[in-house]
Amino acid sequence: MAAELTAHHRRLAQQKREAITSAATELFLDRGYDGTSLARIAEAAGVSKSTLFKQFPTKAALFEAIVTESWQRDVGNTAARPQAGDLRSGLRAIGHRYADLIGQPRMTGLFRIVIAELPRFPELGRMQFQLGKLPYFASVQHYLESEHEAGNADVPNAESAANQFLGMIANYVLWPRMLLTGWNPAASDIDSAVEEAVQTMLARYTPGPPTWPGAGMSTRPRNA
Prior knowledge:
Elements: H1 2-31, H2 38-45, H3 49-55, H4 59-75, H5 87-102, H6 105-117, H7 122-149, H8 158-173, H9 175-179, H10 187-205
């Protein structure tokens, strides 16, 4: 019985936490980070101020939680990380999970908050980069390093390769959404964007002779 009560209390606490972070994200977008008080967030989330302050004693701590929870759900899921052995399937799995992650309205909202408030609150940008984007990119970098070490890929600079791969996907899925309110590509179009990114990575990093157009061609003049 005690275990059931403990599990019930944990579920309630998690539900309240999600209500708080969701309400805070909406208010930060609507009123700005500086113009939103913790008391207003508690009211919008339907929780008491003491409940909110117990979980998030400061507004910075609340924003930190929003960043961490938005980015690191996938990073912390070790079962979802592909194992070295099949570069194509591994990249596809990473690419589709990344497209799903950055295609969420929550992620778009997070980027908009940071961009809008960066001049006055540069610490928000540091949180977004150090707690969110950097750990996520590092997880992809580590995967590419494992494929390189196993001989399944020729990736001399895994950090650069991770930026290339995720950048190709973000350039279609995320950044147009930041500027175009009606940007909502079909699932099939997102799948195509991921597949194009995978094919580009395979052409560049599959071991053996280069396969991309023009690769291996001499740059010396013919009569040199």
